[in-house]
């Protein structure tokens, strides 16, 4: 702290732009999209002050046009990773010492750069890299990342203000030191905001970071790097590397200075990281912080009293937006027999009204491509299996085509087996499975939901009956870290619905909250005594 108790600007959620026909933002983002699409970018790694090009490159293609190449990125050698760690440790001394308000300024500036001059760039890059339609790109890459950056600054100032009481004659104070070492951030493909937030939240609290983005997101990660550089993050504070995740992780986790992991991605990868950290525990100077937000098998449960249009809309949006590739996407649905036909007819009508899956450049497309061939093939396999299985019936969609892009039709499977494989397994695509329960079996269905999946990320209950809502809220208390009443289970907003789940869905450290930032500090308590005793004898000794 310098010479004042500074108050940070009050964080407010970034307003979402409409991109309606004729709007200036629509023209700007489409112009930027074309410019990126027709260019060839060569993306280096960023290690200390250097842009590192190994010459060992990989191409980048939009999922909706996989033969079109928009650039290449350079992949790391083991030595590059060691250099990234060394640069972290060199940068750490000054970064850990700098006043918090300087760090706050950098990240507030980054937020304003995204809100202004970089908005169309980060959105267009996300449309190309992850095949998001413009609304999905705007709420993620622009608004959510801005919100993470602004709210985290506010939470940081609240954490620093949290101080212990002091009895007469002493002064207790806590300083929130960054971790002694470096943080390893591993980010998923599906949210540009998460990619930016995982390294940024640790760096904001004074840490230095090795950041490994997903191969499928490097095109939009590059825009994040440009923004962080323009905002003034010093060299070496966030080092960005790409390539073989196993080699990179083995090298990083072998370092004695590894102090924490900030991961978002699939459950099996996180479990393997946790194991590896456990195996290496004697290597480390401190106990590493392990923060991971992972998979989900998110549910929608409709009570017989629920409004059928509201349930159908929760399914159409919750299961199919961004092709079901949100960790919070609804993928198992429980409908009462009495209203199931009406709800499914409404969902089918919604799906019929979507255009065929296509490019996000055509803004009439609600559904675009899934992220890569591996994902496409996996989804196609489950759809084919459902076509064969007697306990499953595809009632909408069920077609797919990867000739030009990785396009999967929004698909609804109805199953008679509540433990059918697609009721339990995270598919991460536009495929939702519905189980129809007897209206009289409401309470039993709650138990079924609780015991069907290893995950506990998001879930939604829709009902007009307040007793039923209360029963579901209690019975499902361990089924979801984010629980929605009369809403879809997606669309958490930073500052309003801190996000994360338990069980196999993660450590539930709630991205976009003070709880998460507390994982990146190691508090030091300082007790100062004003009149220090000079005699050991207490009065009882006489
Ligand atoms: P993924 O697990 O395939 O990849 C995530 C990251 O881990 C990538 O950077 C990848 O390169 C890296 N990785 C892969 N194998 C690795 C290994 N062996 N060692 C170290 N790193 C490795 O996940 P994805 O496909 O990018 O993202 C989708 C998954 O993320 C889904 O399971 C989804 O539910 C989850 N997710 C969860 C949340 C949440 O908040 N709970 C948010 C977004 C995504």
UniProtKB/TrEMBL annotation:
Organism domain of life: Bacteria
Q: In which pathway does it act?
A: Amino-acid degradation; L-proline degradation into L-glutamate; L-glutamate from L-proline: step 2/2
Domain Aldehyde dehydrogenase, first and last residues per copy: 61-515
Note whether Secreted occurs among the keywords: no
GO molecular function terms attached to this record: L-glutamate gamma-semialdehyde dehydrogenase activity
Q: Which UniProt keywords apply?
A: NAD, Oxidoreductase, Proline metabolism
Q: Which reaction does it catalyse?
A: L-glutamate 5-semialdehyde + NAD(+) + H2O = L-glutamate + NADH + 2 H(+)
UniProt xrefs under CDD domains: ALDH_F4-17_P5CDH
User: Might you give the EC number(s) for this enzyme?
Assistant: 1.2.1.88
> What is the main EC category here?
oxidoreductase
Cited InterPro entries: Ald_DH/histidinol_DH, Ald_DH_C, Ald_DH_CS_CYS, Ald_DH_N, Aldehyde_DH_dom, P5CDH/ALDH4A1, Proline_metab_enzyme
Any signal peptide, and if so, which residues? none
Q: Which Pfam families match?
A: Aldedh
Q: Which family does it belong to?
A: Belongs to the aldehyde dehydrogenase family.
Q: Which NCBIfam families does the entry mention? A: D1pyr5carbox1
This one is known as L-glutamate gamma-semialdehyde dehydrogenase
Q: Which organism is it from?
A: Maribacter confluentis
> Top-down, what is the taxonomic lineage of the species of origin?
Bacteria, Pseudomonadati, Bacteroidota, Flavobacteriia, Flavobacteriales
Gene that specifies this protein: pruA
